[in-house]
Amino acid sequence: MSDNRGREGRLKVRVRTARGRKTSSTRWLQRQLNDPYVSKAKAEGYRSRAAYKLIEIDDQQHLLKPGQSALDLGSAPGGWSQVAAERVKSREGQGRVVGIDIQEVAEIPGVEFMQMDFLSPDAPARLEALLGGRVDHVLSDMAPHATGHKTTDHLKIMALCEAALDFARQVLKPGGSFLAKVLQGGTQNELLAQMKRDFAVVKHVKPKASRADSSELYVLATGFRGGGEDGGAEGPGAEA
């Protein structure tokens, strides 16, 4: 806490609008330079400030445990995968973390990565083959490129969330969890109703690491009711 207070106590860095740079780009750069989570991520070796969102959520909800398995959808640049690997102890060989993204991701200790488009028709089959069994957690920090049009952006991110949920139903173990990014403005009732049928508890969470001016939040569903008998000890990350 003292480190954060120290950073927040500094004078803010002001960035001049350079020739050829858009005003929006200047604002983004200034925000990055003054963001304590950006500085903290660099100091602590995380790939992105987003790592602290998962850290805060997991500290509160106690999702990720040593020996478990997690699938990180849209993992670039790797912050969430790093946190998951630390918490399930896949670097020590106890758990397992698999990450996928359309972009290339540099190697992360304890993480198996596959570069692929999650929305491509062959993605589910390729992922299931890689996993070789069911997982304890499906994590999705996926977000489409923002258009600036609130309704359009909401519909696009909800489509990603729904695709992630559809896949989670196929690969989660009984009792597993699903965590995905959405936008404020109301998760569509039909999607929430689906989650409530499939999971024991469904709620929204917004970590402090989410910027105050951001409309993002996360939907967390725990206690997956599906999975069948094949969701037992044969799945990746299962205890011996």
Automatic annotation (TrEMBL):
Keywords: Cell cycle, Cell division, Cytoplasm, Methyltransferase, rRNA processing, S-adenosyl-L-methionine, Transferase. GO terms for biological process: cell division. Pfam families: FtsJ. SUPFAM superfamilies: S-adenosyl-L-methionine-dependent methyltransferases (SSF53335). InterPro entries: RNA_methyltr_RlmE, RNA_MeTrfase_FtsJ_dom, rRNA-MeTfrase_E, SAM-dependent_MTases_sf. It comes from the Bacteria. Residues 46-224 form the Ribosomal RNA methyltransferase FtsJ domain. GO terms for cellular component: cytoplasm. S-adenosyl-L-methionine binds at residues 78, 80, 101, 117, 141. The active site is at 181 (proton acceptor). One of its GO terms (molecular function) is rRNA (uridine-2'-O-)-methyltransferase activity. It is found in: Cytoplasm. Its EC number is 2.1.1.166. It catalyses: uridine(2552) in 23S rRNA + S-adenosyl-L-methionine = 2'-O-methyluridine(2552) in 23S rRNA + S-adenosyl-L-homocysteine + H(+). Specifically methylates the uridine in position 2552 of 23S rRNA at the 2'-O position of the ribose in the fully assembled 50S ribosomal subunit. Belongs to the class I-like SAM-binding methyltransferase superfamily. RNA methyltransferase RlmE family. This is Ribosomal RNA large subunit methyltransferase E. It comes from Lutibaculum baratangense AMV1.
